[in-house]
């Protein structure tokens, strides 16, 4: 299976088209997120990558490098745990969050993949390729959660 990078124009266009297909009444096929809360969640994760949102390093049973390897290379299970800081509270404006998602995808992909990226508070130092893989996988996971 080929590694997908958000920086790949075909992957980016596909993710953007899938975001645009979401509707405010979309229902999750698994997990607890509503569609507005899922969008907030993915947006905050992208802000962490850009160094614009804080994420408390959770106490992990394994080193960050081991977790990073697993997250990047192993299949994700439905309903996997997430960092508490990325669990949204309350409701969010669907259209505003979707617009923010599209804007953040553009911002993440406008940063050259070969640049240096902020240290991830949980996964540690990550290359641009790892960051791009992480977000392509994360976005795909949650878009599949909502059937797009």
Describe the structure.
The structure is a single chain. The chain is mainly alpha-helical. It has a single domain, classed as Four Helix Bundle (Hemerythrin (Met), subunit A). The chain is 49% helix and 0% strand. The chain has five helices and no strands. The chain has helices at residues 9-21, 35-49, 64-73, 94-110, 128-145. Helix 1 runs parallel beside helix 5 (128-145), helix 2 (35-49) runs parallel beside helix 4 and helix 2 packs antiparallel against helix 5. The longest helix is centred in the last third of the chain and has 18 residues, at 128-145.
Overall CATH class: Mainly Alpha
Count up the domains. Answer: 1
Taking the sheet with the most strands, its summary is: none
Per DSSP, the total helix count is 5
Strand percentage, roughly? under 5%
Instruction: Tell me roughly what share of residues is in helical segments.
Output: 40-55%
| Structural class by helix and strand composition | mainly alpha
* CA-based gyration radius: 14 Å
**Which fold name fills CATH's third level, the topology?**
Four Helix Bundle (Hemerythrin (Met), subunit A)
Oligomer: single chain
H-E string: HHHHH
Number of E-state strands: 0
CATH architecture: Up-down Bundle
Q: What spatial form do the alpha-carbon principal axes imply?
A: globular
Overall pLDDT score = 93
End-to-end separation in angstroms reads: 21 Å
Low-confidence stretches: none
Provide a short characterization of the protein structure.
With 148 residues, the chain is mostly helical.
């Amino acid at each position: 299976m080929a590694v997908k990078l958000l920086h790949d124009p075909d992957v980016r266009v596909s993710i953007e088209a899938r975001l645009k297909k979401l509707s405010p009444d979309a229902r999750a096929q698994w997990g607890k997120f509503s569609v507005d809360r899922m969008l907030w969640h993915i947006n905050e994760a992208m802000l962490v990558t850009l160094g614009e949102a804080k994420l408390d390093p959770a106490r992990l049973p394994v080193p960050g490098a081991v977790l990073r390897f697993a997250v990047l290379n192993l299949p994700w299970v439905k309903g996997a745990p997430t960092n508490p800081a990325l669990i949204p509270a309350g409701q969010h404006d669907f259209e505003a969050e979707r617009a923010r998602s599209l804007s953040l995808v553009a911002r993440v992909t406008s940063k050259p993949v070969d640049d240096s990226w902020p240290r991830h508070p949980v996964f540690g130092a990550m290359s641009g390729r790892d960051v791009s893989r992480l977000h392509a996988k994360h976005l795909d996971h949650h878009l599949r959660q909502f059937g797009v």
